[in-house]
Amino acid sequence: MVTPLKPSVRYEKDATKAKGGAKVTVSGTQGTRTVTTTYTVNPTDGRLIPHEGKPVIKSSTPTVVKVPAKDEVEYLKEGDDVVKKTTTYEVNASTGSLIPTEKQEVFKRNGAKSKVVTKIILVTTRYEADKTKDVGTNTVTNNGAEGKVVTTTPKLVNETNGTVTDGIPVVSRTEMVPKVVKVGAKDKVVETLIEPEVEYVKDVEKDFGTPDQRTEGEKGKTVTTTTYDADSTDGHITEHVGNPVVSPAGKTIVKVGAKTKVERSKDPEGRDVIDTTTYEVDPKTGKVTPTTVRTYGTSKEPTTETRPVPSPVAYEKDDSRDKDSEPVRKEGIPGEDTITTTYTVDPNTGAITPTVGDSVRRKEPTNTIVKVPAKDKVVETPIEPEVEYVRDGEREVDTPNERVEGAKGKTVTTTTYDTL
Question: From the centroid of its chain, how far is CA 225?
């Protein structure tokens, strides 16, 4: 019997083709195994007894599979160096699997070092209002830290030939931490007390001059709140004065005795005088200004006046004595009248209006006799002659005048006197 023998498979490295490429199979030839069987017959039962001969084997030729396993050269960046990595492959003859062997060597020392540019961001100062501390108090709460901008330009290594080129810059930014200064900006609250206003009021129940009664009022206050803002750039303070909040004060009331005073009296004229004094109190100073109003009763006591009644004078002619002699007087006795006057009084002005009663004759007077000298008087008055100038034709001009006196005349006047 001929049994075919399959060719074996052997894997071999193909150093001309890159790993992963198509495998090339070169088919082998089959071999054979020839066994010759002879038979003998079992004399007992006649069964055939086979007897195999020694196999004759014709060897097969193997199938060869060419596995692409070209050595690989790759340039890599390791840190700052350019590294050449060589990978060689061995082929497992039975399985065809590749067994790599790597070898690395520095191709360029520091040849792939990245370019690093660092820009420092200087610390700035930020001012913040501290509402817990008074203006003028500054406190550093954070000294801050510089920031930086780091621009890293990586180096790219060509894997094929190991050439180095610049990659895309990578910017890394570390923010600056500002220095923080707390600026005192605590609100300032100013309270100004407001003293109670004093008001003086008249107390009509108490006499003027009695001690004042003082009731103190509650004090008020004005509250002014000043707030402050701190400029974040330079820390300067801006003041904002708020509107005053006023809590009004009460009033201190001072009661000043100002009871109206009424005084009654009689004046020399017999009038009932009523002096009423009222008091006005200045509400701001407490000064008391009295005002006295005088009024009068409406009547006064009547008065009785006794008036003498003159003695009537009777003149009698005395013809025994010359006129202009001193008269002779014999006094009579005066009489007497009484007059009762009643009065009404204006209560506002005090003006007295008298009402004079009729005169009542209490006693008649007797005559006073005056003897008046009244003797008749005879008076002779001479009458000088009238002078008459006449022309004298017989005498020269400018010769002395010739005067012939005439006889004097007279006027006789007799005066008699009568008494009235």
Answer: 9
Residues 33 and 5 sit within 8 Å (Cβ to Cβ): yes
Whole-angstrom distance, CA of residue 128 vs CA of residue 168: 41
**290 pLDDT exceeds 80?**
yes
372: amino acid identity, one letter: V
Residues 44-85 have pLDDT tens digits of 888 888 888 888 888 888 889 999 999 989 999 998 999 999
Alpha-carbon gap, residue 88 to 56, rounded angstroms: 43
Tell me the C-alpha distance between 259 and 82, whole Å. Answer: 121
Question: What span, in angstroms and rounded, lies between the C-alpha atoms of 135 and 103?
Answer: 74
Instruction: Report pLDDT for 420.
Output: 64
C-alpha pair distances (Å), 9 with each of 21, 94, 160, 193, 223? 19, 7, 35, 116, 109
The pair phi, psi for residue 102, each rounded to 5°, is -105, 145
Tens digits of per-residue pLDDT, 204-224?
Answer: 999 999 999 999 999 999 999
